[in-house]
Structure formats: structure tokens, C-alpha cells
Specification:
Number of domains: 1
Shape: globular
Strand order of the largest sheet: 2-1-3-4-5
Strand content: 15-25%
Number of strands: 5
Radius of gyration: 16 Å
Helix content: 40-55%
Largest sheet: 5 strands, parallel
Length: 198
């Protein structure tokens, strides 16, 4: 997923984590979608630091915000300035508070794309959004397709269904690994086989 950054599009992903399987899997989905066509830089944040993280960004490419939302009007204004200056911003979230704030009109960022739904966890919403984009582009990315089992596990655990074998255990692995989990999941195979570190 990472190669020479010369002449590549830059993509910033800010997601819930690094101890959250759903947020980390959503970031992995974005990176796998771009494959080697972009230099993807993930940054993870908790709810108490998301506003500071987002306001520190001045991305020179695209910005994806997954599985998390901001609370402060200053952050909304900062993101709006970025969007108006030409930064495409995508927001995908499933938390009820985020959906309610958007519906109430307190979030007015001109997004290039957004998915706000409680139907699935953010990882699955992100994956399906990008899967549809790939289809529309007529592009095939086998490593993205191979991510489906991981996404199913993340969605299963985050919605407390626990119908997919191993989803709860994988969530604990991510919680334990913290910042290291992203790199392991970025390269996980379709069988979601654990790396030695996992």
C-alpha cells in the first residue's frame, strides 16, 4: 500500500483509534482502496482529542474522517476553510450523536462525500462506499476485495452482534496493540491470519 510518494496523491485519514477495531479497519479500507495510487497517512484520535487533531491539519490532498466526529464550531469552520480551498473532505460515521448534529444543521462542511447511517459500523459503511466507487470507476483492487472478512469482523464486533467467529478476540488484539494494529491489519490476508505480533 505504500511506495514512492513522488507524484502520488496525498490522502489523510483521521479515524477513531488506535484501540478501536472499527476505526482502524475503516482507515485500512481507505488505504486499500487507494492501493499504490496514493500516499495514505492515517492518524488516530479519541473523542477528547479529535477537535485538536482536525484543526492541526492542513492537508495537501484528500481528507477522510471515519468513525468519529468533532464537537467544536471552530473545527467546523476549519474544515469548511479547507474544503473551500480545494481539499476534498469525506466523512463516514455511524454514531447517533453525529447524525443528530448533522440533521440539526450544526455541521455545515461542504463535503465531497459523506455517509451517515446507524445501519452498520463505520468500517462497513466505509468499505461499501469505496466498493461502490471502485465499481463506478471500473477499477479492480484485489487487496481491497480481500479485506471483506476483516470488515465483517469489525462490523460484527462494533455492533455487539458477535456472530462472526473471532471478532471479539480481534477487537481485543487491536486494543492491546494500539498504534501497531494499523500496520498489521493493513497487510492482513483474506483469512485474517494473525501476524506474529498479533
Amino acid at each position: 500500500m505504500r511506495g514512492s510518494s513522488a507524484m502520488k496523491k496525498r490522502v489523510h485519514v483521521v479515524s477513531h483509534g488506535p484501540h478501536c477495531l472499527d476505526g482502524v479497519a475503516a482507515a485500512v479500507a481507505v488505504a486499500r482502496y487507494y492501493d499504490d495510487q496514493a500516499d495514505v497517512t492515517p492518524q488516530f484520535a479519541g473523542n477528547n482529542e479529535i477537535d485538536t487533531v482536525l484543526r492541526s491539519l492542513a492537508p495537501d490532498g484528500e481528507l477522510w474522517i471515519t468513525d468519529i466526529s468533532w464537537r467544536e464550531p471552530e473545527t467546523d469552520a476549519h474544515l469548511t476553510r479547507l474544503a473551500n480551498a480545494g481539499t476534498p473532505i469525506y466523512w463516514i460515521d455511524h454514531h447517533r450523536t453525529a447524525l443528530e448534529r448533522f440533521a440539526a444543521g450544526t455541521i455545515r462542511v461542504p463535503f465531497a462525500g459523506r455517509v451517515l447511517s446507524e445501519q452498520y459500523a463505520a468500517s462497513r459503511l466505509t468499505y461499501e462506499y469505496l466498493r461502490d466507487r471502485l465499481a463506478a470507476e471500473g477499477r479492480s483492487v484485489p487487496t481491497f476485495d480481500a479485506l471483506a472478512p476483516l470488515i465483517a469482523m469489525a462490523d460484527d464486533n462494533d455492533r455487539w452482534l458477535h456472530r462472526v467467529e473471532g471478532s471479539r478476540e480481534l477487537a481485543w488484539v487491536v486494543r492491546t496493540l494500539g498504534a501497531d494494529a494499523y500496520d498489521d491489519l493493513l497487510h492482513v490476508d483474506a483469512g485474517v491470519r494473525y501476524t506474529p505480533r498479533m
